# Entry
Amino acid sequence: MKRKIFTTVALVCCVMVCFAFFADLTGKWTGSLHAPDGNDYPLNYAFKVDGDKLTGSSTGQQGSVDITNGKITGNDFSFNIDVNGVDVKNTCKFYPEADSVGMDIDYQGFKMHATLKRSTDK
# Structure
C-alpha cells in the first residue's frame, strides 16, 4: 500500500514539474531572423500557456498578429501566424535550462531557423 502511494505521489510530482517548465514559457520573447534575402527581421512574441494550448501574439513592422493553432507537447510546441496573408507554421523547442527557444519556420517552402531569448522588457 505504501509503495502505491509513494509511486502515485512521485508521478504527480513529475507531471507538476513538466507543467512548471511550460509555465516559464509564458512571457515576452525576442530574437532575429536572418532571411534568405539577406535581411534580418526582428522577432517579438508574447506567449501565454494554458495546459497544452499556446496563445499569444507576434509584434512586428506590420503590427500585432495573433498566434493560432498553438499546441504544446513536452518541451516541443508549434503555432501558426499570419504574415501578409500567408499562414506561417512555426515548430519550436523550449530549452528551460538556457531560457531560450529554438524555432524552425516554414515560410512558403523556405525553411529558416531562429533562436528566441526571454525579453527583459516588461
User: Anything to note?
Assistant: Confidence is low (pLDDT under 50) at residues 6-22.
